[in-house]
Design goal:
Elements lengths: L1 E4 L9 H5 L4 E4 L2 E4 L9 H10 L5 E4 L1
Antiparallel strand pairs: 1-4, 2-3
This protein binds iron/sulfur cluster.
The site of iron/sulfur cluster has 14 residues, from α1.
């Protein structure tokens, strides 16, 4: 499982970082994915962060 944040859509609300800091972090005023492969243990929270993003900026690929 992989994830990325579309920087053109991200509004920097920080919700994904709060929900899943194992995968997301803030870089300036945008969130980024700081791991290349999502650890198994973080997959559920990573998906939750994707579902919660108010502007659907998170793209997850299996
Ligand atoms: S939840 Fe969405 S809009 Fe908010 S920081 Fe994360 S990627 Fe950006």
């Amino acid at each position: 499982m992989k994830a990325k944040v579309d920087p053109d859509l991200c509004i920097g609300c920080g919700l994904c970082v709060t929900t899943c800091p194992e995968v997301y972090k803030m870089e300036g005023d945008k969130a980024i994915v700081h791991v290349s492969i999502i650890p198994k243990a973080a997959e559920e929270n990573c998906q939750k962060a994707c579902d919660e993003c108010p502007v659907t900026a998170i793209i997850i690929t299996k």
